[in-house]
């Protein structure tokens, strides 16, 4: 039953996307893998890369990313990673937008959320270099707290993380020690 419901939902969203979105864009790259070299390989450490797969990059040099489910406007780092990867390949990016399609219920027109190119790129650049610094600190010290918490992330919970509350999880260890 749930498979049939999911299939019907995908069909409904695909139809809506095809009718309301695709006629307005001219895709040049679809499901395109991008890679940005954060730091090259050295004698001290391996190369670090930021990689991802963008939905659509069109002839107008706009990135389009389809979203469904709850509307969330926190996609700057994702777009920034795509921008860094495209720029590394010599592409210029003029704009970015998420195209939000509500899941379930009565079909609604897509909601377009634009994102500023420079801010996205700069945010992803800073985040990527911070991750490298965190990893290097972890490798030097073995301290898992070298990786800074992401306040926008809800994945640190029993619902999403199988390590949550176990001895492998620093938060879980701290909680168990308090009890």
Percent helix, as a range, is 25-40%
The H/E string reads: HEEEHEEHH
**Principal-axes shape call:** flat
Distance between the termini: 43 Å
Low-confidence stretches: none
Neighbour order of strands in the largest sheet = 1-2-3-4-5
Q: How many β-strand runs?
A: 5
Structural class: alpha+beta
Helical segment tally?
A: 4
Radius of gyration: 20 Å
Query: Whole-number average pLDDT?
Result: 85
Tell me about the largest β-sheet.
Answer: 5 strands, mixed
The fraction of residues assigned to DSSP E strands is: 15-25%
Please provide a written account of the structure.
There is one protein chain. With 179 residues, this protein is of the alpha+beta class. It is built from four helices and five strands. The protein has helices at 2-20, 76-88, 117-141, 170-178, and strands spanning 27-39, 48-58, 62-68, 95-101, 111-115. It has a five-stranded mixed sheet with strand order 1-2-3-4-5, with helices on both faces. A hairpin with a 3-residue loop joins strand 2 and strand 3 (62-68). Helix 2 crosses helix 3. The model has no long low-confidence stretch (mean pLDDT 85).
